[in-house]
Write a structure and sequence with these properties.
Blueprint lengths: L13 H16 L16 H25 L19 H24 L4 H23 L4 H16 L25
Helix pairs in contact: 2-3, 3-4, 4-5
């Protein structure tokens, strides 16, 4: 095994290890470098923490809502599906769970672990959420005020994806110290 090989095989199923290895190899090939000069990862700004909260909150809601709709624990009127390509709520629930939920969770974990692509992941997750809601409004129309709230949250995620999500490390010593330890020599 060469030094460029990613070490994600231990304790995981082989297919998952293969997917993770390919994803990280692609990121490496694209030249996206996540390593910072400092061994410590920069902390999230207030905007980054708000975005992280939204990702987890919406992600859990999308997964729970998708499962609830698929198992018919959240009954919706069948009349809402007239004129849509769906004959039941199973597939919309599956899409909600897999596409919207996973994009929110993926953006949250990327924001936590891979600061160099956090903004891009945030943008994609916000667009997926807003696109899901616009598609829902287009297919079944306005049925509840919460639909507008989710469009707004998606747009907030998109807007925050352009903000600085991590603090930058200052290269100059603080408080006028000339030595990294703060002691003058």
């Amino acid at each position: 095994m060469n030094s460029q090989k990613w070490l994600y095989a231990g304790g995981r199923p082989k297919w998952l290890a293969t997917i993770l290895n390919r994803c990280f190899a692609t990121i490496h090939t694209l030249g996206i470098n996540d390593r910072q000069a400092s061994p410590m990862r920069a902390r999230l700004t207030v905007w980054g923490r708000i975005l992280l909260f939204l990702f987890f909150f919406i992600g859990f809601g999308a997964v729970a809502g998708g499962v609830g709709v698929m198992k018919e624990m959240l009954p919706f009127p069948e009349v809402w599906l007239q004129g849509t390509p769906f004959h039941g709520y199973f597939y919309p629930g599956l899409i909600l769970c897999l596409v919207v939920g996973s994009s929110q969770f993926a953006a949250a974990f990327i924001l936590l672990w891979r600061s160099s692509i956090g903004n891009v992941a945030s943008l994609i997750a916000g667009l997926v959420l807003a696109g899901w809601m616009v598609g829902e409004l287009r297919l079944i129309g306005f049925q509840a005020p919460i639909q507008g709230c989710f469009v707004a949250i998606g747009m907030v995620e998109v807007g925050l994806s352009f903000a600085r999500l991590r603090r930058t490390h200052s290269r100059t010593p603080r408080c006028g110290a000339s030595h990294p330890t703060g002691l003058r020599t």
